[in-house]
Design goal:
The complex is a heterodimer. By secondary structure, chain A is an all-alpha fold. Helices cover 73% and strands 0% of the residues of chain A. By secondary structure, chain B is mainly α. Classes of the chains: A mainly alpha, B mainly alpha.
Chain lengths: 369, 65
């Protein structure tokens, strides 16, 4: 039988925050600056606004289909076969994001800290931890991120404070030098990344207070977007938009210039440990979502036996899907945003309008099956 | 090795409990991993993510800078 798990509202917020920030923290600021230049902050604001509007739809669907996640209510709305297909698309997005995220983290470790270690070793080590965490279930992951999330947020706030002396506000000007709409594609990319918070659709049914879903997502997205906005602001005002746009991870470069007096330097190792931990927990959350989703689509009695095989499959995809680090960056820049927007916005709006037109509603489910 | 370990750890208890649907799902997932890995290793076919990338990348390239 499916495990009856429950998380509280605080864990709900930190789970969403950790997923969103891990995915958005490394490569995304450079991609946004590359697309929007000095107006990157505006792209982030617009994406936040659109994501909050989207959260209203997800929260409404969660209330209309109580106790059901989007895999389950897709089946209720569209029937077994079409609904399962739509459910699989949501699950596939989580799987692809897990692969891209873990490969990104492994690449960063490989390039910056362990250049002589084969990438495969880093990936296998990472996936063993991810698989064990996902196997323990969402309650354990929830408790871990409840501890890790505030440390992660505090480290970013501390980083920002320490970098204030290096900020040059004149690097933000002139604004709109190339046009008033040039930042819009960057807003779409940003929306697709923070849209991974559709994870709330998987977490809402197991939250002990599902009516708080919208406020929880609002808090998580606002915190996460605040973090990305801070990194983008610091990157542009410290490095300038041209240089920041061509960095692999501007946040890492920012940590490298931090020093306290003349005796505390190279604090990036501390930051890296926190970031890798958050990345691993995010991958575990995504892997958990994939295993739960697959077990629901195919009507299996339990999702736990799927975790290790799925970890193996994602490890294989992680290792063999990208011939080089550049390919992973290209995938993150051009392919993942299109997939994200299609699933997070288009498919959910399709489910929303189909539910309204057909008048279908859910009935409360006690377990997740 | 990782795949075989996953199959052994998860498969054996499922066979003992006669949960054949779950066992089939485990076998399919591990099998897919082997097929994808070997297919790519011997240059027989691309991985699903490469196929996805080939399909979607041009759209992303047209939309974003």
């Amino acid at each position: 039988m499916q495990q009856n798990e429950a998380i509280n509202t605080k864990q709900f917020i930190w789970l969403l925050f950790t997923v969103l920030t891990s995915i958005s923290f490394m490569q995304l600021p450079a991609i946004i600056i590359f697309n929007a230049g000095r107006e990157a902050w505006l792209a982030v604001m617009l994406a936040w606004l659109l994501d909050v509007l989207l959260a209203v739809v997800y929260a409404y669907m969660g209330i209309r289909f109580p106790g059901e996640n989007f895999v389950q209510y897709a089946k209720t709305i569209f029937g077994r076969y079409v609904g399962s297909l739509i459910g699989l698309m949501f699950i596939a997005l989580f799987g692809v994001t897990c692969v891209v995220l873990e490969r990104g983290v492994a690449q960063l470790i490989n390039i910056v800290f362990l250049p002589k270690t084969p990438l495969g070793i880093i990936l296998i080590s990472g996936f063993v931890v991810i698989a064990v965490a996902a196997k323990k279930g969402i309650e354990v992951i929830g408790r871990t991120v409840e501890l890790l999330g505030p440390i992660y947020l505090a480290s970013i706030i501390l980083l920002a404070i320490l970098l204030v002396p290096d900020v040059r506000l004149e690097r933000l000007t002139p604004q709109f030098s190339t046009g008033y709409t040039d930042f819009l594609p960057a807003a779409v990319i940003m929306l697709s990344f923070i849209g991974i918070c559709i994870m709330m659709g998987m977490l809402q049914p197991i939250c002990n207070r599902p009516e708080n879903a919208f406020l929880s997502k609002f808090a998580a997205v606002t915190l996460g977007v605040g973090v990305v906005q801070t990194i983008i602001f610091l990157s542009i005002t410290i490095f300038g938009d041209k240089l920041a746009a061509n960095m692999y991870a501007p946040s890492l470069q920012l940590t490298r210039i931090v020093h306290i007096g003349k005796f505390i330097e190279r604090v990036e190792v501390v930051w890296m440990v926190i970031t890798i931990s958050a990345g691993i927990m995010s991958s575990a959350i995504l892997l958990w979502a994939v295993s739960v989703g697959i077990s629901q689509v195919f009507g299996l009695l339990s999702d736990r036996p799927l975790v290790y095989p799925l970890a193996f499959l994602t490890l294989v995809l992680c290792f063999f899907s990208f011939d080089s680090n550049v390919m992973q960056s290209q995938f993150t820049h051009y392919t993942l945003p299109v997939l994200g927007i299609f699933v997070e916005s288009f498919l959910e709006m399709l489910l929303f309008f189909a539910a309204l037109i057909t008048g279908k509603r859910g009935r409360f489910r006690q377990n997740n099956n | 090795m990782f795949g075989l370990a996953a199959l052994g750890i998860e498969g054996y208890p499922l066979v003992k409990k006669r949960q054949w649907a779950e066992f089939a799902a485990v076998c399919i997932l591990v099998g897919s991993g082997f097929v994808i890995g070997l297919g790519k290793q011997f240059g027989l076919f691309p991985t699903p993510m490469e196929i996805l990338n080939d399909l979607v990348h041009p759209v992303g390239k047209a939309l974003f800078r």
